[in-house]
């Protein structure tokens, strides 16, 4: 395998805003990844919940190849068949009547928040512009989305910050009641906080949020960038809770590894995005749209969604068995194949050490904050890969514990 570039090359030529792992993957299939030295890794990270069908899924490869031989890009001066087919499928499988296509989760959320403010201005006037979000939430890295996100560390040095954004504790109904008013244009919630620690919303909280938005003529926005497209065991997490938002953002798993994003909404709300009000050059790209349509078709298969639920239990049982041996986690939480292992007080703030230990045992995992190890594997990961990956994780933790407790 080629080694013309190495991990050291990153430090020489890339902007230093990332600290990537010490190996470079060069080939992948399913839930297995090989690096430049030919070492085989098991992938429990899924490109941060992006590779919904694993690596190089044959149906996705065939779809992309077919579209690549037709048309790559046209812009939104024109339309194209794959974009229209994807939008049609999304309206057929969700609450949505209208779809806006873009390129990423941040773009989807940017569009969602702009649409919420525009709709409020159109119907209630400029004073109705306030957005309520949750502490520890994450909605993207644009200036707008990073401020709607509830993690101040991501806004430091990028001020002045946009006005009219309030944060309340997640799952705190009383705090939401106290914050919402007739000036609120939108309440923004992740059904499962991803970057904030893989923390699911309670049923009561989402029910209350829906009712409060109804009372105050505010829009309920669900950020399903990480939870969408089968990740929780339903096509979208709102279906798990039976709470329907007014706007939903989707990305990550939507393209199965190909960059794409979308917002889903109703016809009435969509009217506020008239011609020229918002746009994106690459949004609705034929390549991305063709792949995303195939992803939705595959993930929507009953056996795939049922498999997510079964694999969730296999993961949780395996993690609990590991914890029974080493007592390093104080909670295993999440939904479907978005799972968080909260480290014990002994390892508080040190979740990244688990990631590094796993890497040494050729296992790819994630963190969610400082104290949660996160797992977001392929939705169709084979049971043998789950078992082998957990065995490697067991060995990694044994080594970490031995070093820590001697």
From TrEMBL:
Residue numbers bearing the N6-(pyridoxal phosphate)lysine modification: 252
Gene name of the record:
aruC
- Family the entry assigns: Belongs to the class-III pyridoxal-phosphate-dependent aminotransferase family. ArgD subfamily.
PROSITE patterns the record matches: AA_TRANSFER_CLASS_3
- How is the cofactor bound, in the record's words? Binds 1 pyridoxal phosphate per subunit.
Give the main localization category.
Answer: cytoplasm
Complexes and interactors: Homodimer.
Recorded GO molecular functions are: transaminase activity
Subcellular localization, as worded in the UniProt entry: Cytoplasm
**What species is this protein from?**
Vogesella alkaliphila
Q: Which UniProt keywords apply?
A: Amino-acid biosynthesis, Aminotransferase, Arginine biosynthesis, Cytoplasm, Pyridoxal phosphate, Transferase
Q: What is its EC number?
A: 2.6.1.11
What else the UniProt entry mentions is: May also have succinyldiaminopimelate aminotransferase activity, thus carrying out the corresponding step in lysine biosynthesis.
Q: List the protein's name.
A: Acetylornithine aminotransferase
CDD domains for the chain? OAT_like
The record, for NCBIfam families, names: arg_catab_astC, argD, PRK01278.1, PRK05093.1, PRK12381.1
Question: InterPro entries, per this entry?
Answer: Ac/SucOrn_transaminase_bac, AcOrn/SuccOrn_fam, Aminotrans_3, Aminotrans_3_PPA_site, Class-III_PLP-dep_AT, PyrdxlP-dep_Trfase, PyrdxlP-dep_Trfase_major, PyrdxlP-dep_Trfase_small
Q: Does the keyword Amino-acid biosynthesis belong to this entry? A: yes
- Reactions listed under catalytic activity: N(2)-acetyl-L-ornithine + 2-oxoglutarate = N-acetyl-L-glutamate 5-semialdehyde + L-glutamate
